[in-house]
Amino acid sequence: MNAISEYKGKQDLYARQSPQILKNLLEIALIESVESSNRIEGVTVDKDRLKPLIIGNTKPRDRSEEEVAGYRKALDWIHKKYESLRITPDTIKQLHRFCRGESWDAGKFKEKDNDIIRKHPDGRVEVVFKPVSAQKTPEMIEQLCLTYENGLAQLKYPPLYAVACLVLDFLSIHPFRDGNGRVSRLLTLLALYQQGFVVGKYISLERIIEQSKESYYETLNKSSQRWHEAEHNGMAWFNYFLGTVLSAYKEFEERAGNLKPTRGIKTEIVESAINRQFSEFSMSDIEKECPNVSRPMIRVVLEDLRAKGKVEVLGIGRSARWRKRDNSRKT
Fold first, then answer.
1. Do 107 and 20 reside in the same domain of the chain?
2. How far apart are the C-alpha atoms of 11 and 191, rounded to whole Å?
3. How far apart are CA 33 and CA 148, in angstroms?
4. φ, ψ at 62 (rounded to 5°)
5. Phi, psi of 298, deg, nearest 5
6. What is the domain-level CATH number for residue 74?
7. How does strand 321-324 pair with strand 311-314?
8. How far is CA 134 from the centre of its chain?
9. Do 205 and 274 have their domain in common?
10. Which one of 93, 129, 143, 330 has the fewest beta carbons within 10 angstroms of its own beta carbon?
11. CATH number of the domain that residue 315 is part of
């Protein structure tokens, strides 16, 4: 958790300095998240249709494409509204409604009991877990949402632990006839975003889960044993969950750090940092705000702004102070 928190701070720095430099990562993550989360559940579409459905305005032409396009809408909803959304039964139903497209049971809790099964190569079917009954599902989802919200409000648990437990309990309840896995991954993103961990916006958590699918199911199965008796041990799932988030942050730092900014981006980064100054500042102050921009580049931008009459220098040498001309006139 400490490592994730450290990476979170670096992510905030990248996003604050230049959100446009992350646009490419955002688009890639969007496509990967939609594709992987649906593919885990056996929902696939033609490669040449995938990007137009997710990024463009292409209309779905069958059920699979409806569900892919619906997952894209769910991600868009979370990205835009996560700060104002509460994790409630209605929110969970809305996520399911997005995922299931035009299906008759979209946004509806299951009407019949369901089992989580494993199919063996010899054709044998094994029941690995019996979720909550259909009759008790609405009550259990209501209780889950309240317990999660109260736990966070009362600071009973670290946020990452609370989110991991939320997802494990949701999957153990298994409230829908179909689409539980996809809703759980959307719920993961929503809950993480609300706690300030927005790495899933730039690196697809769904793809990382798909790449470790065997461990995903294994840890879920292990941590849900004796769940109904409240005697389960969730540490296997907790460790897997943290590992997934940490992997995303490591990949984010690696990929964001290797991005080649387009011409002019670094100038915009420096100018933005200068505009945030409210009083006199030094070149070192701007360097701290722009760790990926060299001192010579910062000097070039400052001299350009000086020539345009937007800033002025006070003194000479490395310790010279600067200030914005507009600010000096106002004061």
1. yes
2. 17
3. 25
4. -155, 180
5. -60, -40
6. 1.10.3290.10
7. antiparallel
8. 30
9. no
10. 330
11. 1.10.10.10
The model's pLDDT over 286-300, given as tens digits with 9 standing for 90+, comes to 887 776 678 888 888
DSSP SS3 for 54? helix
Is pLDDT of 260 > 60?
Answer: no
Tokens of 13: 């720095």
Instruction: Tally the C-alpha atoms within 13 A of residue 110's C-alpha that lie toward its C-beta.
Output: 21
Do 75 and 34 contact (CB within 8 A), yes or no?
A: yes
The answer, yes or no, to whether residue 221 has pLDDT greater than 90, is: yes
Q: How far apart are CA 51 and CA 148, in angstroms?
A: 36
Same domain membership, residue 205 and residue 281: no
For residues 160 and 281, state if they share a domain.
Answer: no
Provide the domain count of the chain.
2
* pLDDT reading at 329 higher than 70: no
CA dihedral for 222, 227, 232, 235, sign (positive or negative)? positive
Average pLDDT rounded to a whole number, residues 185-194: 97
CA separation for the pair 149, 142 (Å, rounded): 11
| Judgement on whether residues 237 and 287 belong to the same structural domain of the protein | no
More confident residue, 174 or 253: 174
Regarding whether 312 and 189 lie in a shared domain, the answer is no
The first and second tokens of residue 208, run together, are 């990382």
pLDDT per residue as tens digits for the range 88-126: 999 999 999 999 987 899 999 999 999 998 888 888 888
Structure tokens at 262: 């387009």
Picking from 258, 281, 313, the residue at the C-terminal end of a domain is 258
- Residue 60 carries which DSSP code? P
Q: Which of 202, 225, 258 is the last residue of a domain?
A: 258
DSSP lists the bridge partners of residue 125 as 119
Co-location of 170 and 305 in the same domain: no
CB within 8 Å of 301: residues ≥ 6 apart: 267, 270, 271, 274
pLDDT for position 330: 43
Domain that holds residue 279: 265-330
CA distance linking residue 124 with residue 122, whole number of Å = 6
Q: Considering only residues 58 and 179, tell me which one the structure prediction assigns the higher pLDDT.
A: 179
Structure confidence at residue 257 as a pLDDT band (50, 70, 90): low
